[in-house]
Amino acid sequence: MKKLESREDIELLVNAFYAKVIDDETIGLFFKDIVKVDWDLHLPKMYSFWETILFGQMSYKGNPMSMHFPVNKIKAMEKHHFERWLQLWKLTIEENFTGENASMAITKSENIANLMSYKMEMARKQ
Ligand code: HEM
């Protein structure tokens, strides 16, 4: 199994992940119906996001949380959606990569997803 160590590896990982997400019964609708994602824009953002997190390359300049509040307003992003997101992300990593960065990609995603889940829940109570 390969180590996760280059921009090309991240591209492969992110592409394989969204291939699963799109057809997924639990979270696919967020990307196909709630937001009609422009993949030519979204995918490069996600490559840069993970490159920044894993390799410290400061190529991502956005705010990962703020993009999700408008989505959450249209359809509640609930705990079970985040659990499914994490399940697919972990599965895609484990199918393709091994090593320290692969583990870090899992740990970081868990932290962000848990925080995001909490923030979305709080936003719905306001
Ligand atoms: C149920 C879980 C999630 C759903 C349904 C979801 C959905 C979305 C959608 C619809 C977009 C907007 C795409 C567009 O611009 O057209 C987006 C953007 C994004 N998401 Fe998520 N997301 C989820 C969880 C996460 C998690 C856990 C992370 C990080 C580990 C993440 C990171 C991002 C980033 C970095 C962007 C791009 C923000 C920007 O434009 O700068 N998402 N997401």
Automatic annotation (TrEMBL):
Entry keyword Metal-binding: yes
Gene3D superfamilies, per the entry: Globins
UniProt keyword annotations, A-Z: Heme, Iron, Metal-binding, Transport
Domain of life: Bacteria
Pfam families: Bac_globin
SUPFAM superfamilies reported for this sequence: Globin-like
UniProt-recorded name of the protein: Group III truncated hemoglobin
Species of the source: Chryseobacterium gilvum
